[in-house]
Write a structure and sequence with these properties.
Layout (H helix, E strand, L loop, with lengths): L5 E6 L9 H9 L9 E6 L6 E2 L5 H4 L6 E8 L18 E6 L4 H8 L7 E6 L12 H4 L9 E6 L22 E4 L1 H5 L10 H8 L6 E4 L4 E3 L12 E3 L1 H12 L9 E4 L9 H9 L3 E4 L10 H6 L1
Parallel strand pairs: 1-2, 2-4, 3-4, 4-5, 5-6, 6-7, 7-8, 8-9, 9-12, 12-13
Antiparallel strand pairs: 10-11
């Protein structure tokens, strides 16, 4: 079927995982070029299983015409081998990846040729502990820094995130309008640092034209204000998070298109009243949201902001 435009592989049972490599090679040998293939979805629906991709799965993905790719609940470590060439994704527009055994080398095989990418949505699995040194997506995404508009980096871990990397610098991503990322992944271990140059940190790490900044898992602390006995203690922003948001608001001319600063938190951390008032005066919104579904990215909506 050389005129096929979409492939949707969706399965719950492990039959596909049980295919031996010889059978895969036989099936791959029967594949013909699909110059019109635009969409490829490979989705493991079984909550207890992931599919381990091997070198014999590479022909499934080797379609230069692809514009939309979704890989859900897969293992991709094999793609990091030196013998594997970067995938031919020059026309890729949207990429969704849910995988736990990624590395810089593996991700580079998917992203090195993705010069037209506009939307990347990455998910680290809930049941896999996060590494302390995540790959630097600001380096991996250099090929599409002029086209990328939506970047979602979600670590859906059950354990707290403890990143020790120096952060990711998106200052030269001029098209980026929606950035969703844990602040520790974006800025590095800044929470308890003293004498931070927060303005310079923002200039280095935040793109110049964002409309939405979505910070995943802001770390809360407890208010020291005395409360009535029947009142529960309130969670507030850490001092450096407060300074970060205030610095953004007071230097909004550096980020003139910014309209939303939102965050999630394990414990509710509502915006401080003074920052809320500043944002309102600027025609912006700052708020705690329960999850990403509260403010999903959409290019048409972003264009209207």
């Amino acid at each position: 079927m050389p005129n096929l435009e979409g492939i949707n592989l969706r399965f719950r049972e492990s039959a596909l995982s049980r295919l031996d490599e010889g059978r895969k090679r036989e099936l791959n040998s029967r594949m013909v070029a699909k110059p019109k293939l635009k969409t490829f979805n490979f989705i493991q629906d079984n909550p207890r299983e992931t599919y381990g991709m091997t070198l014999n799965d590479i022909p499934l993905l080797s379609h230069p015409s692809l514009t939309t790719l979704k890989l859900q609940k897969v293992r991709i470590r094999e793609f990091g081998r030196p013998s594997v060439r970067p995938l031919p994704f020059e026309n890729l527009d949207s990429f969704y990846l849910h995988a736990g055994d990624y590395s810089y080398e593996v991700l580079n095989k998917f992203l090195k040729n993705a010069k037209s990418l506009r939307h990347l949505e990455f998910h680290h699995p809930f049941d896999v502990s996060a590494r302390s040194d995540p790959p630097d997506f600001s380096e991996l995404l250099q090929p599409c820094k002029s086209s990328l508009q939506i970047l979602e980096l979600w670590w859906d871990c059950m354990d707290p995130l403890c990143f020790n990397n120096p952060g990711m610098k998106f200052a030269d991503f001029t098209a980026l309008q929606y950035l969703a990322i844990p602040p520790r992944a974006l800025f590095g271990p800044y929470w308890f640092e003293n004498d931070l140059d927060i303005l310079q940190m923002l200039k280095d790490h935040i793109p110049p034209n964002p409309k939405v900044l979505f910070l995943q898992d802001i770390y809360p602390c407890w208010s020291e204000e005395e409360l009535a006995e029947d009142c529960d203690p309130e969670a507030i922003l850490l001092p450096n998070d407060y300074k970060l948001i205030k610095t953004l608001l007071t230097n909004i001319e550096l980020f003139p298109h910014l309209r939303y600063i939102v965050w999630t938190s394990e414990i509710g951390t509502i915006p401080p009243e003074d920052l809320d008032e500043m944002a309102t005066e600027l025609g912006m919104a700052i708020k705690l949201v329960p999850n990403r579904l509260e403010l999903p990215p959409d290019l048409k909506w972003l264009d209207r902001l």
